[in-house]
């Protein structure tokens, strides 16, 4: 399949940029007629050419040009509701519409297979884990959100399984089998992908509005009777992000948490110099046996190399909390709410009934001050550490559609311990590079679609049968 530079007989009709089959949801994108029946897609501000499209007079597909926090893309939607999402470096022909976006083929993150971590074990210190599943994930649109009716953690990733299901399976294999998940946006899509996870008990806390990354945990701590079984107040709790794919050794992370007598332990991975400014960096005293792990000194948010100095540990969002921190989390929230209410009263406003509580913004700074002052102690009266531990394995923050495709190519390209099966042809095309959600490959065949490059073919959640 080639980029449309001149109209083929099949797509010979000149395209009217005002066509009802085209919509533009991007302030800086314009479509203008060009020679030979093509329409060019350009940036309004710079004139940069982003791609081209043609559209037959009898086109049945609808094309949306979309630009959000996750970048620019084109979405071709068919009468059967199939969504063909093309990123820069993609070509789509379906339903009388042909669109090509300029850009490189997204490569795997690894040019050679990374060293395999040692076999991951199973810990038995605590079975309790929380997966953060309530984020809005606006950087992931249109792969999640209104176009597909999926929450970001619910998006299918490998073998047709959702991101959050792969996380839950990994947790269970490592001994974290009592799992609770907070939900907010499109919770039904998230729960559907979690049915029947072997060996796991999965509970939910459905939030009517966002409460912050630590908000759901705070609610459980404040009402243990209402959330019986979610948490054992005498055991550590593991918290993981619901939108990151990893095979990290979390059992070893728990071992480090216990060994160091930590109040909080953060799992980290080393990032190269060129990526330091893309991540939250954790500065330690390098007291660990590996020379990089250690007691946390400070947090550096996407620092320059000069600011980062010798520190290269990136926060992966794996957090272990000791039971001693639970009452402090409640106290941190109570203080923040009281301050917000006092401020509102002073300004003549209605005092809030609730405030957001965030691990990074609220909980970590407070607990770090306490550990550095030596005032956070265990039952034996011993001071507890705020520890950062280097963890082994693969980790990908699926922050936007580009990172999503890159993660898929890491997995299906043989760079991870992912066993390929004949069924994977339904989910990933090695020849064209296109990614397919469950049922989408069959739909594309029926609809006569031709796709190539950085394309995600999606079927919206609860979509009626085609």
What would you say this structure looks like, in words?
The structure is a single chain. The chain is of the alpha+beta class and 466 residues long. It is globular, with a radius of gyration of 24 Å. Strands 1, 2, 3, 4, 5, 6, 7, 8, 22 and 23 form a ten-stranded mixed β-sheet that branches. It has a five-stranded mixed beta barrel with strand order 16-19-17-18-20. It is built from nine helices and 23 strands. α6 packs across α7. The two termini are 26 Å apart. Residues 1-16 have low confidence and may be disordered. Helices cover 20% and strands 29% of the residues.
Describe what is shown at a glance.
This protein has helices spanning 163-173, 187-192, 215-222, 250-259, 305-308, 326-346, 359-373, 401-412, 440-446; strands spanning 22-25, 29-33, 39-43, 49-55, 62-68, 71-77, 83-94, 97-101, 128-133, 156-158, 161-162, 178-183, 201-206, 237-241, 244-246, 262-270, 280-284, 294-301, 313-321, 385-390, 395-397, 435-436, 450-458.
Helices and strands in order, then pairings?
Blueprint: E1 22-25, E2 29-33, E3 39-43, E4 49-55, E5 62-68, E6 71-77, E7 83-94, E8 97-101, E9 128-133, E10 156-158, E11 161-162, H1 163-173, E12 178-183, H2 187-192, E13 201-206, H3 215-222, E14 237-241, E15 244-246, H4 250-259, E16 262-270, E17 280-284, E18 294-301, H5 305-308, E19 313-321, H6 326-346, H7 359-373, E20 385-390, E21 395-397, H8 401-412, E22 435-436, H9 440-446, E23 450-458
Parallel strand pairs: 1-5, 9-12, 9-14, 12-13, 16-20, 22-23
Antiparallel strand pairs: 2-3, 3-4, 4-8, 5-6, 6-7, 7-8, 7-23, 10-11, 14-19, 15-21, 16-19, 17-18, 17-19, 18-20
Helix pairs in contact: 6-7
């Amino acid at each position: 399949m080639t980029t449309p530079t001149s109209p083929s007989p099949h797509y010979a009709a000149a395209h009217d940029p005002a066509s009802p089959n085209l919509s533009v949801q991007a302030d800086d994108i314009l479509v203008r007629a060009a020679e030979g029946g093509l329409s060019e897609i350009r940036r309004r501000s710079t004139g940069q050419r982003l791609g081209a499209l043609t559209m037959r007079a009898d086109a049945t597909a609808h094309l949306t040009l979309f630009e959000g926090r996750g970048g620019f893309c084109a979405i071709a939607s068919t009468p059967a509701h199939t969504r063909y999402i093309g990123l820069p470096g993609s070509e789509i022909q379906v339903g009388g519409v042909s669109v090509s976006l300029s850009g490189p083929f997204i490569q795997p993150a690894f040019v050679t297979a990374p060293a395999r971590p040692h076999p991951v074990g199973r810990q038995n210190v605590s079975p309790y884990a929380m997966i953060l599943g309530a984020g809005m994930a606006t950087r992931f649109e249109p792969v999640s959100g209104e176009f597909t009716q999926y929450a970001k953690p619910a998006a299918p990733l490998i073998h047709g399984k959702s991101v959050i299901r792969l996380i839950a399976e990994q947790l269970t294999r490592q001994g974290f089998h009592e799992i609770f998940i907070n939900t907010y946006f499109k919770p039904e899509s998230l729960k559907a992908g979690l049915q029947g996870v072997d060996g796991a008990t999965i509970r939910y806390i459905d939030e009517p509005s966002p409460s912050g990354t630590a908000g759901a945990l705070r609610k459980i701590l404040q009402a243990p009777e209402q959330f019986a079984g979610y948490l054992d107040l005498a055991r550590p709790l593991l918290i993981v992000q619901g939108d990151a794919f990893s095979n990290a050794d979390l059992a070893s992370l728990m071992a480090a948490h216990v060994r160091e007598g930590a109040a909080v332990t953060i799992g980290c991975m080393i990032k190269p110099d060129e990526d330091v400014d893309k991540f939250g960096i954790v500065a330690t005293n390098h007291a660990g046996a590996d020379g990089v792990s250690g007691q946390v000194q400070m947090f550096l948010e996407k620092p320059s190399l000069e600011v980062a100095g010798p520190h290269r540990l990136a926060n992966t969002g794996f957090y272990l909390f000791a039971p001693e921190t639970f009452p402090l989390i409640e106290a941190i929230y109570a203080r923040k709410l009281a301050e917000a209410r006092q401020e509102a009263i002073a300004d003549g406003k209605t005092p809030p009934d609730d405030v957001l509580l965030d691990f990074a913004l609220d909980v970590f700074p407070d607990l770090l001050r306490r550990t550095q002052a030596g005032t956070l102690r265990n039952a034996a009266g011993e001071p507890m550490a705020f520890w950062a531990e280097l963890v082994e394995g693969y980790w990908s923050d699926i922050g936007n559609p580009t990172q999503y495709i890159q993660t898929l190519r890491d997995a299906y390209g043989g760079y991870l311990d992912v066993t390929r099966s004949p069924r994977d042809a339904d989910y990933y095309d090695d020849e064209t590079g296109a990614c397919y959600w469950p049922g989408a490959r069959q739909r594309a065949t029926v609809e006569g679609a031709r796709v190539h490059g950085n394309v995600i073919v999606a079927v919206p959640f609860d979509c009626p049968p085609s």
